[in-house]
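Translate sequence into structure tokens.
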Amino acid sequence: MIELPRSSYYYRPVEPKKRDIERAHLRDRIEALALEFPRYGYRRMTAQLQHEGFRVNHKRVLRIMRESDLLCKVRRRRVRTTDSEHGLPVYPNLYRGEVPREPDRVWVADLTYIRIAAEFVYLAVLLDACSRKVVGWGLSRRLDSQVTLEALKAAIWSRKPSPGCIHHSDRGVQYASVRYGKLLAEHGFRSSMSRRGNPYDNAQAESFLKTLKAEEVYLWEYRSFDEVNERIERFIEDVYNRKRLHSALGYRSPEQFELTFTVSQDRLTTSSQFCPA
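Result follows.
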């Protein structure tokens, strides 16, 4: 007989409980999502997990994120890139009180700056006010109308909106320029501008830029213009438009929201074709 203590002879390894395995899997997934979306709060994190099939509530997610030090710490900065002291035409606010019921009825525009090692670069964006999707953007080393024109041309090329779409912006010289106004008129846009010094008139565009700064720009130290271009493209196209959940869209990404909207419209069109006149 092998001389072994009785306790060692009868020892059987204890298998981990199913609940412990599920808890570890949930924590691993939360940590992975926090790496992919560093500025997700616990509510948005809960919605993402529920979309993936996890049966969790916000209290449990908050507890795990707090224990793992994964709660985002918001940095607030104010950036002014608007020069409204010019003699160019300005337009009334057509977006005030307007609620877009479908995409490509209202576009909102804004621009900001991004610091790199030895200079600043400037980013202009256009968002669809209904889906919050970034429909066009441009990046430049110069703060002039060329960067806003680049964003507008990209948006027109990708979306091809019908005439009558409202284009809303601040009163900055880049949006009031003759070339920009001419391009808007050629494609049948209705020009709209915020009231002077009122950030709430263009809150959707400014909200996106804050998200971009908090979840991308402030997390990196860019070394070159090309690096900024690559990272911004990845964030806008792969993260924000396709993956990032938006609370105003029922915790769906802009592309998910637009897909749902398109499907519902197709069903409505199909059903109307079979209705008697």
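Note: The beta strands are 106-115, 120-128, 134-140, 166-169, 190-193.
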